[in-house]
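Model the whole thing, not chain by chain.
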Amino acid sequence: MNAGRRQQTARVAAAALLLAPAMAIISLGFVAPLIRLAILSFSAPAGPLAAYRELATVDVYRIVLRNTVILALVVTAVSLAIGFALALMLIRLEAAWRAVIFACVVLPLWISVLVRTFSWMLILESNGPLNRFLVALGIVDRPLPLLFAFPGVAIGMVHVLLPYSVLPIYAALSRIDPALLRASGGLGASPATTFRRVLLPLSARGLATAATFTFLLSLGFFVTPALLGGPSDTTISMLIDSFVEERLDWPLAAAASMTLLVMALAVIGLAGRFVPVGALSEVR
Amino acid sequence: MTPAGAWTKAFAALLAAAIVIPVLAVAPLAFSKQSFLQLPPHDWSLRWWEVFFADASWFRALMTSFEVATLSCLLSVAAGTSAALGLPRLGPRMRTIASGLFLGPLVAPVIVLAVGLYALARSFGLVGSTLGLVLAHTMLALPYVVLNVGVSVAALDPRLALAASGLGANPWRVFRTVTLPSILPGMLGGGVFAFVTSFDEVVLAVFLAGPNVKTLPVRIWEDVRVEYTPVVAVAATIMIVLAVIGSAVGRLATRGTA
């Protein structure tokens, strides 16, 4: 009895010792900065809630907040559609093909978001290859304003976030028993009915995971909208950056940061019951 | 499910090309002769590579990136491996809390972390220091290491360590001869993730960098927004090549654990 307890104490002590360095890094680099921001957000000279009040009442800030959510919704919807189509194709391809396409899907995850966004700047510009292609084909008369505009931001973000859709949906689809789909077809269901009644419900969890990851990451995205967007495509993360770098208004920057953080936590809280948020780390 | 026909294959190949080509589109410009950034380049030359390596500030940024990535990789592998070994020894509730805390840096918006770290680093005089950058990147990379090593630790048969200590090996010897060899692939995989995470990271680095300590992504970030020459394409190409090497090494390292 006594020996058992001593052994358990030793076990806990060993665990604490082993976890101490990582906990120190997380406390210093993650917890402490967030606490500092929380305190700063209530430290506006005009009163503890002044920064939050300013965020909630100034029209420009409300528009930015709304734009951020709309952008995140659009990016999530498009990513899910393309991701589902791609995952469906991946499942049906033979092994060698699948390996190649799969490698193409995950390769971008290794390459810096900054580099990928920079590439899109070159592709999307009015004299860039995409516009010249469209003009040459006669699809448009003059180059489309893609760069420094909403389409550019959306294209760039879908491209960067696509793997976070494809991988969870692919995982869900590959768990479906092919016999079910054959049975559905054999019983006379059209491909559309099989898709709606069998494929979609059975992959719902994967779709929910994909939607959560993509929406969560879109909300706080900074590099891509900052480089590909125009003045009217400002997102909340760019607003935070301008509060710090240009206006030097720390309480306002901190309050906007807290708002974004709470939005992200709300997404995790709402989706966390159905979706393994921890799996985010497995995507790469 | 019906096997893929020619159309599906063609469409899948098209989508894959649409994913990969935009990533690599910048590379040809690194070898262009013209002095403005436009695709496709008309003439070829290595002049921008010469400019890159002749410009002390670009070269220093590359070296700073290597330094910061190497240090954060070593630190996060050491702390992360230790944590991955400690986690299974905790009770179920403490384990949930600790694992949740380790996931934090992955789900928190990076701009929020950047501004928070900047605010904190300012009060400690760590803005523009290598130490500040290394700590920030170590924090960011830690979840990947804890996860990767955690997979190896879970696959470990606890009876082996028990047998070794029963045969008289001290804890350090048990770790060195039994535990370490089995978790080494996980450590390597996590280490590669950590290195690439730091090497690629730009937002924390932009906020924590200073005039003397700038990583390569910070230099690219500044140049993309101000002057716009093919030197940036050279820097971007270097980052792509290193990332591809990293992904290959990472795949080799994690092959044993999966």
